[in-house]
Amino acid sequence: MLDREKVAALADERLDWRFKAVPAAAHGLTVREYLADGPVLDDLGTPLLTLDAGALAHNLRTMAAWCADAGVELTPHGKTTMAPALWQAQLDAGCRGITLANLAQLRVARAFGVDRLLLANTLLDPAGLAWVSAELDAHPGFSFLCWVDSVDAVRQMDRALRAAGAGRPVEVLVELGGPGGRTGVRGAAAAVEIAEAVRAAGTLRLAGVGGYEGALAHDAGEQALATVRGYLRELAELHRRLAYETAEPVVSAGGSAYFDTVVEELGPLAAALPGTRVVLRSGAYLVHDDGFYRSISPLARGAGQAPLRSAMHGWARVLSHPEPELSLLDGGKRDFPYDEGLPEPQLVRGEGPLKGAPVVSAVNDQHAFLRGAGEQAPVGAVVRLGLSHPCTAFDKWTLIPVLDDADAERPRVVDLVRTFF
């Protein structure tokens, strides 16, 4: 499933100026040596992104149990973290493979030996297709799926694979989209035409259907859920119509916002059509957040016994207190996500939860505007921030400290997670 020795070897990487989370005192040490010294949160500078070990473990267990109870597979989206060590934890928890979004991410996964990959995208780059073909031919145990959403794409893939001398066919899912959505063919009739083109191409094999309902809605209101449900029913009907070239056809959907509705609509296909594999691709569940996913996750809306917990926090220091109700923090857009909601001030390190209703009203490249904290956030104070959207948090950090407990009085650094963006 994954090359554990390569993941373990990340602990032998030497720490230096490349890793902004690492203090200068640790430069020259390996990750293993640094952790052996027993570092604590107060040893680290600001701004800082950290992970919480307990929350990560809870989220892994919770989602694994939910999928097992629902009778569906989980191939989580690895682009959320691009962290092989976290991928390993997900695979160990029962995930079948890893989903990715582009060619560069595929190369990272193959470098770490991930042998079951789903590309939730169409791959048209000729050099990329030649590389994937070579990987398939050289490694019989390597399983690869990707999407296709037009006859033109089928023809271009077939041409590129023939030019590369492909041996094993590339398995593809016909991607169904929806009005106003992202990629994906619009309508079942056009999807059937694409499927016929795939079956006629000697270098491709029709292996299922897929899509992404999260592009069609952005909240959990009645209208949004109706839109998602209608799309998923269309995807289920398409799956029933097509004749596949594999004994275990895949039907795949499910981000981290509507996976309960996905299971309600697609789950019955596994019983109705023998061999069908219903594959979720939820990726944000592992880290979760204190913003968008906290508000929309099915497990926060009653679809499970245990809600997910945010496993990521930002830490930023007050640099300036120029006005009575304004503090400037030393972390901004280059450090924390802001596209799905601004950071949420939670507590002052060593002092406890913030009182009242302070907010981060804006972020610049390297600063955040904290308003309403008053004298609770004097110059030099370190503020813990709740963050929204893990997908745009991890890409800002090449090495992320993992704390034993972010709520502890003196959190210990128990791991460093390496990312590859």
TrEMBL record:
| Tree of life domain | Bacteria
Q: Which SMART domains match?
A: D-ser_dehydrat
What PANTHER family does the database record attribute to this sequence? D-SERINE DEAMINASE, ZGC:162816-RELATED
D-serine dehydratase-like domain ranges (all copies) = 311-404
Q: What is this protein called?
A: Amino acid deaminase
Family matches, as SUPFAM superfamilies = PLP-binding barrel
